[in-house]
Amino acid sequence: MTMALPAKFTASIPGLVRKKEGALIQYGPIGVDLGRNGLRLVQFVNNGNDLALHASVFVPFSTELHESSKHLRALIKKAFRKNGFVGREVIACVQPEDAKIMMLSYMHKPGKTDEELIVQRIAERVDDDISNYVIDYMMVRPEVSDGQERSVLVAMAQRDAVINYLEHLRKAGLEVKLLEIEPTAVRRLVSARHDHDHTANLVTVSMGNSQTYITVLSGRRLIYERDIDFGEQQLIALLCKELELGELEARSMFVRDETAYAKDIEHDGQDASVTDALYSVLKPLFMELVEDINMALVYAASETRGTPVKHVYLTNLIATWHGIESFVGSLIDVPVSVLMPFEGFDNAETVDSKSDPRAAVVTGMALHGMTEAV
């Protein structure tokens, strides 16, 4: 038996279906990275079934523009309109030069809260009035019994610097939902990449201008983080000293400019013998980095009953250098690759084919609330 539907109701069905489909679409927050040389913006969308890259753009600009809220507002407005970003809610990151990140251990004491004990440990480690800082923390080893040592990842930033940065973004027309730190954002991206494997030990090495963050993940858990004074600044200075080069000349031998992206980072126009010679000059500094990476590998195995690290991911500024993947891979006994942030996400090729390791942090920020690894 069949029943004919009224024509008026039948005509409304397509509209109802589209409305239902629209209700399933979830646009994530916009990850925003206001770097030294440009602005990066990334946004994801979940259509109810899959997570896809919705919009992405890198806009280079000068230092003067970086400091002008008025000009930044105009630039953001144009970027949003041209690239189809939805909403104004953003996730921003504390600038590396303003952030201090450290791992702390403490013993739980009866009658004391975790917050009280953490604040006490921070005060013991910092030669300053901690009321001058904005402080946040994440438990790294929360599931322990009384009398056992607990570990926590602490992020600190000068209060005035944070307020000024948030105000700068507000004047630029953005609504900051959350301010987070680089290791947390990269952790979210790597966790999304390994969503099928909840037990793998992974290491990320985020090498920036003057600081490097080494992070160990066990499944979705962050179990270790260390920041060290190592970055492009120190490496270029050594190259200039040893080869008597000017800074721009030394930089050009390794560093791609902001618009020169390449999917195959290991194979480009530079002669391999030249690259090898340059790395031989820088090897003493890199060996110091390798020593810290090996400490992270040992720590991962000790914390996970001997489970070895499955992979090491390189990201951020130095991850764009010629031959970096092969060079670091030759120094450690774990598979190494450069973390390409959009790889594996739906629609990535359509939205932005210029995938760049420097976008890993902002991509991780844009995934906030879109994956389990918040």
Task: Please describe the topology of this protein.
Elements: H1 7-24, E1 26-27, E2 30-34, E3 38-46, E4 51-60, H2 63-67, H3 69-83, E5 89-93, E6 99-107, H4 114-125, E7 133-139, E8 149-158, H5 159-171, E9 175-180, H6 182-193, E10 201-207, E11 212-218, E12 221-228, H7 232-243, H8 247-254, H9 272-303, E13 309-315, H10 324-329, E14 336-338, H11 348-351, H12 360-366
Parallel strand pairs: 2-5, 5-9, 10-13, 13-14
Antiparallel strand pairs: 1-3, 2-3, 3-4, 6-8, 7-8, 10-11, 11-12
Helix pairs in contact: 6-12, 7-9
How would you sum up this structure, described in words?
The protein is α/β, with parallel strands linked by helices and 374 residues long. The protein has one domain (26-366): Nucleotidyltransferase, domain 5 (2-Layer Sandwich), CATH 3.30.420.40. The chain has twelve helices and 14 strands. The chain has helices at residues 7-24, 63-67, 69-83, 114-125, 159-171, 182-193, 232-243, 247-254, 272-303, 324-329, 348-351, 360-366, and strands at residues 26-27, 30-34, 38-46, 51-60, 89-93, 99-107, 133-139, 149-158, 175-180, 201-207, 212-218, 221-228, 309-315, 336-338. The strands form three sheets. Strands 1, 2, 3, 4, 5 and 9 form a six-stranded mixed β-sheet that branches. Helix 6 (182-193) packs across helix 12 (360-366) and helix 7 (232-243) packs antiparallel against helix 9 (272-303). The longest helix is centred in the C-terminal third of the chain and has 32 residues, at 272-303. Mean pLDDT is 84; it is low at 1-5, 16-21 and 257-269.
